[in-house]
Structures are given as C-alpha cells and as structure tokens.
Amino acid sequence: xxxxxxxxxxxxxxxxxxxxxxxxxxxxxxxxxxxxxxxxxxxxxxxxxxxxxxxxxxxxxxxxxxxxxxxxxxxxxxxxxxxxxxxxxxxxxxxxxxxxxxxxxxxxxxxxxxxxxxxxxxxxxxxxxxxxxxxxxxxxxxxxxxxxxxxxxxxxxxxxxxxxxxxxxxxxxxxxxxxxxxxxxxxxxxxxxxxxxxxxxxxxxx
Length: 206
Prior knowledge:
Elements: H1 9-30, E1 34-37, E2 40-43, H2 44-67, H3 72-91, H4 95-117, H5 122-127, H6 135-162, H7 165-190
Antiparallel strand pairs: 1-2
Helix pairs in contact: 1-2, 1-7, 2-3, 3-4, 4-6, 6-7
C-alpha cells in the first residue's frame, strides 16, 4: 500500500473543487443547446453531466497519484456521480443527477445518526488527528453536522423540484458548498473550549 504524501494545499483544492466549477462553466456554455446521438436528443445539461464524470475521475486520479490516498467520502461521492450520471444519460432524464445530491447528503446524515445512536462520533475517527477534541465536543459537532446534512438533503429536494435548472446548478456548485464550509467554520469557533491543546493533562482529553 502506497504511503500517503502531502501536496501543495492550493493544488489539492484545485483538484477537489475544480471539477464542479468546470461542470458549471460547461453548463453555462451549452445549456441552451441540444445534441442528437443515435437518434436521441440530449439537453445541454445532460451533455455537461457526461463531460463532468471523466473530468472528476481524472482529477481524483491525479490526486491519488500525488497523495497516495483518497478519503472514503471522496470515493463515495465519485461513485454516486458516476452512478447517477450514468442513469441520467441512460434514461435521458436530468432528475437522476439532481437527486444525487439529496442522496449523498442523506447518506452522510444517516451514517452520522447511526453513530450517535451507538453513543459514538464517527467524525472523531476521521478527524481527531487533525483536530483533537474532547468526546463531548465531537458528539456536539456530530449532532449538528448530522442535522446540517439532513437539512441540505431536504433543501436540495425542494430546490430541484421547484426551481429552474439554472438555479439548481448555481446552488449546487456554490450555494451548498459555501453553506457547509461556513457552518463548519462557525462550529469550529463555537467549540473552541472543547479543543485539546498540546500539553493538556490526560483528564482534559475525556
């Protein structure tokens, strides 16, 4: 198994955030176009979705080659993009790709919720090395993030069912990620008292 390696954080962000932005730009360019393949007419949205899938895979391949690792979240998200992107093209129905976001957020909420029912924070298993925090803090963050993911799943369902494709693409590309990042920064600030500093006594880690 290859050893994990660090890379330039800016390059890492480009590889992780670049594909959705490229999808957005391609969609803006071809959203009013229609394409006929094999006697079937496809909208610009569906063609942009088909282009997005290999772009995402290439970016993930480069990230894996440079770092030697991919997170479970990245792998799961890529699988969902491929699966629902394929359904979108196969059935020529953009609803499959739109509902993918609801399912991804819903699964994250479900997994965190299962951990909470077991009295555990599965976030801590993933992030504790990067952000050491007392158990109580992890449980608070997990409950709040579980609710956030559930809220995003519901919001996506409302948005794609009631608003235009243009609006959904903009919110999916920018709105949801910005909301999630802002929420996480807010929580990190709010939970400062639970963070474990170097040199804290063992009892402070409980």
